[in-house]
Design a protein that fits this description.
heterodimer; A: about 240 residues; alpha+beta; 10 strands; B: alpha+beta; five-stranded mixed β-sheet; about 35% helix
Chain lengths: ~240, ~600
Amino acid sequence: MIEKIKKGTENPLLMLANEAYSVFSSLSFEIATGPELESEWYNFDVLNVSKDHPARDMQDTFFIKDQKEKVLRTHTTNVSARAIEKAGKEGRLPCAFISIGKVFRNEATDSTHEMQFFQIDGTMVGEDISLADLKGVLTHFYKKMLGDDVEMEFRPSFFPFVEPGLEVWLKFRNRWLEVMGAGMLHPNVLKNVGLDPKKVQGFAFGGGLDRIAMVKWNIPDVRLFYQGDLRLNQF
Amino acid sequence: MKISYNWLKWYIPEIPEAEKLQDVFTYHLCEVEGIEKKGDDTVFDINILPNRAHDLLNHLGVARELASLLNIEFKDPMPMYKIPETKPTKLKIKIETDKCRRYMGRIVRNVKIGPSPDWVQKHLESIGQRSINNIVDATNIVMYDCGQPCHAFDLDKLASEMLIVRQAKEGEIMMTLDNKEIKLTASDMVITDEKNVLAIAGVKGGKLAEVDENTKNILIEVANFDPVSVRKTSKKINVLTDSSKRFENDLSPEIASYAMREISGLLFEYGNFDFEEIVDIYPNKQKLKKLSFSIDKISKILGVIISEKEVVDILKRYNFEYKNKNGGFEIDVPFMRLDLEIEEDMAEEVGRILGYDKVKPKIPKIDFKPKINDTYAKISWARNELLNDGYSEVMTYTFCNKGEVEVLASASDKKFLRTNLSDGLKESLKLNQLNAPLLETDEIKIFEIGTVFLKDKEEINICYADKKEIKEMSLEEFCKNVSPDTFAQVLGSPVQDSKNERAQPDHSQKHTASAFKMWSIFPFIARDIAVWVSEEIKSEDVEKVIKNSMGELVIRGPKLFDQFKKDGKISYAFRLVFQSYDRTLTDTEINEIMTKITNKIKEKNGWQVR
């Protein structure tokens, strides 16, 4: 008797990552990947994070012994920056990129904090890409991920690489949650990747994927994703 | 930052009710982290954004912002503060560092130390501050009121009537007000007299010139220090104060004059103190900045048509001096608004003041042809291959105990980045094999696709393992014989694909679940039971009897794992897994349950437990 091989089970976080990629692909975003060990330039400087910004302290970021100006990326915005830089050089404008990957923060872990986690980061650049487009894209995304009854809104915030800067909040199962930072790419960022802020503008967004997975399935502890425990693979 | 509703109300009498105010903050300014009723007051804990920390870490700033935002009256308190008559001063202030942008000093003689007036105590208590004495309280009130940190020294404890602002000498020591000895270096800015360090500039005062109950004459400091210098010192010596927090966010040196007037006015109210003239060292006056923006650009950024009328209305409410030429505006940036530098900053102002709910979602249609990402295509293909071969997906930690790349100052003891996936997967395999009775699979097969870090490069590896072997190779190696077309196909519709595959009978129960079920952290116990029955009895019949008597502690099973026939009889073997969510089960209690099941089976005619 030939036994049919039972299909293996998926890590829910990576399952969600693939679903997210597919939603953004349907909106003409190109998938982008990039290094986890990144230069300070792409992780910080390009993104208008000044040399003395608190985020660049050793207490928050992993610097590398004997490798000057290298860090473990603290977000996948580095990938977005690299992608629009390349697209600009190749004359592929307007453009849109999405990247999901592992990021790192030097912090003590607990049920909601982990030294490694997944970030979803996207950007769209063109002549007249606006906050309205950002709102359209993200509303579509969250409805696909969490269902049509999810509500989304923008609230004022601040991040060095965007201006205006926003927080993205979701109402899911009657609770408001902060899920992303977003905004319009700061002109300095556009300049740093070789684009002309007088000619193009664009939006950028980024947030934790772990968080979405946790609320979607009621997973109580972020650390469960990385323990190699198959009991996690329930979906 | 804690903000008192009653305090705000002094400046904006028409302030909306506390409940409504929460939404005003949330949708137009910043996040509200907490609201607390305190007697007849309501205290908001609001999270002022870093770009507004220049001007909003205080009540006056927030009141001014709310007045403009809501277009309600703002009562300027300035005329309230009386200007005392002054006597000439002999105070000398020397600035010997470029990290001090402004230093205002004033000697006040014949002060009487005592308790603060009631309203001062109330204001301080509302935001969680302790009242100390009238002088110290006055410096604090001014900081929480207008954002400018102030300090008072006991003049008679100084070597002479001379203050020096300079960088500390290497190894110089200061005793803080709370009796901590702090060793300083040349990167720290200090306030000294001719002999000793009196204060760490912008961070903390020293014991030496502390104002106490016997103080007669004081020297008031209202100064402006370089934000980066204050932040570095404060972080290094691990002393974070309300003063350092404000300085490190960069204050306009222009606020100093207002603060000096305010604190003088307060002290004047307290009694017949003798005020001397202000000494004001202000080497580089802050320059007036202009900012130009167009309505077209702002509309284009926000994706909302903004009218000239709306912009003019905002500029008027915020008291911006402006010129308008056909929708092209030029404004004089108020000194405190260090956040306003470029056109995009004005787009943010207009956006948040009008409210981002004005931005209506729209799906952009752009002329862009996405290419297939080679790395992602390979990962997807490899992942599907392994899943289809029965391997389950895991993720393990990037950090480990040894490797070729080491991170600095880690909060964890795992300081290295992994050079392989095998080590993590071995651990995972062990864990899952122990848990095998809990998993719906007979054999543990797992895989991980992830980045490994070698001395000079990182690469993506694939590792898969079962009871026989662990194999690891690079993604490139794994995919080397596969044609690019194959990858493209995988990317066709990954979600669809996986959903179809998953609709198999074995998995049906699991995949209808939409909520995660956390497992028990207590050990499980697995037991087998084999039953002889006559051939015509079905396994379901036996299963039913077991189920009816096994109780609540079985989390998996009865699962039929073996059956065979002999001499007109059939044997069914079942496995039961016991586990509790709140305790460790004992062998004794499981034995009792098994005996109960055995007895039930024996009651059946011709049934026998092997």
